[in-house]
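Self-study notes.
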Amino acid sequence: MFTPYHVIMFGILLITGFASILQMSGGEDVLRKNQAKISKSKFDLNSY
């Protein structure tokens, strides 16, 4: 049914999928920090 090749390929797929999910969730933290910096800026469109 499952050959060692299939087991290895399935394991690699799981590991790379998990790693990409972790990487994307880490990127959201960076976006939140940048969003906070932007919202704190003193630039106001209503003043123009």
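Second protein, same conventions, sequence then structure:
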Amino acid sequence: MLALRLTRGAHPAVHLRRLLVATAAAGTGFLFLCTLGYAMAHQDDPRGSLLRLAWCLTPLATTVYFALAVARTDPGTRPRPGLAAIGLGPARLMAVSAATTALSCLLGSMVALLFFLHLRGDLTGMPFDGAGADFLAPEKPLPLPAALTLLGLVPAIASVTVAWVMRPEDDRPKGTGRSYGRFGARGTTAPRETFGSYGRFRARPAAGVRSTQPAGSRAAGAARVGAGGTPPARSSETPPTATPTQSTPPDSLDPTTFPPTPRESPKGLPWGIAVLAAGLAVEAYAGKQDTTPLPGGLTGGAPGTLIGWLLTAIGLALAGPGLTHLCGRLLQSAHPGALRLLAGRILMAEATRIGRPLGVVCAVASGTYAMTTLHDTATTPDIGPLTTLGLLLVTGCTLATLATAAVEAKHARADTTAALLRLGAPATMLRSAAALRAGAVLALFGPLTLIVAELAALPLTR
């Protein structure tokens, strides 16, 4: 009920993203049902049915990835002040996100079932009744448990993925958790304080107030008190002193006063290159050893091609954040100005958030280009409607995921943008920085996509 209330009261842009998730789930569910119809019509070809089911896993993965991106940008399930007081802590909000994702995917699955029954001719009274009777086996009864199982894959996998990724984590520093003391009594691992630290010489600060006096000066003051026997003067009797940022040398400042260290570069670039090379090697060795037809009338080494393309996509997704971070570093090289410095720092800060969707888009674009090259060299001139639907689903979900990640990154740096505007930075400079970031990303990922596509299609066109 809470998920329904949050869904109803969301912004129209949020409703649009959820509607896109439902549309993607409907398309993926329809592909699964069409695979079931092919298996019923061609019971003597189990290998072809399994191959089509394997090809449906790609739209399934992209749909789940898009649903996860939409759930991460949902403002209705973000932790806000006061929600924990009414019982909506991080765990409840995670459950609400998973339930909202499941509702959107269930809506799409219901639409897919209705459309499938309509094309089979089981539902009449509408246009195009029985239009898919030639490949959906309308003369055979539909196994309802198998159909419901296939339709439930998208909602179940999407909701479980959202719940796993958005699960609450313990952000307490190490060493502050609970421990078990004597006879099993619970306690904490905080250091114990001695008897004299409470009231002697104001050594214990007030609650919520952090001492800004360096540790060395406090020890020296305690030594002076012990030597002379005179306690220090009260705070009202001493003149005001300068703040640590004005008079204290930088070496004695409290570490929390320094700005945070820059985020390290992503660690997945070497692994991504290794997996990408492995995928291209698998595609090269696959060749045309297997004559199993691919969906859409293409022929080639289907098992090897599937494994190779999967490894290639995983490698590009792993290497995407590292490549995006590299783009940011290259923008700041060779005596950068304010514009290049701003664009490069933003790319480096958002490398993990937008790098992985960029890698997935690169993988999909290279796979589409390779399939187009294969279709030009194949004997069958036409691509079937189901293959076209699958390509549209994969391409649309990846592009929508990238756009959603860009919107999430824009919201994440809203405070920085507002601070720049308050400091007097012109709006044209921010737009120029955005255009420079897009140009740098295209300059790196565009040639990479073409190179990977050519290497993936070369062994299959020999």
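Instructor comment on the second fold: The two ends are 58 Å apart (CA to CA).
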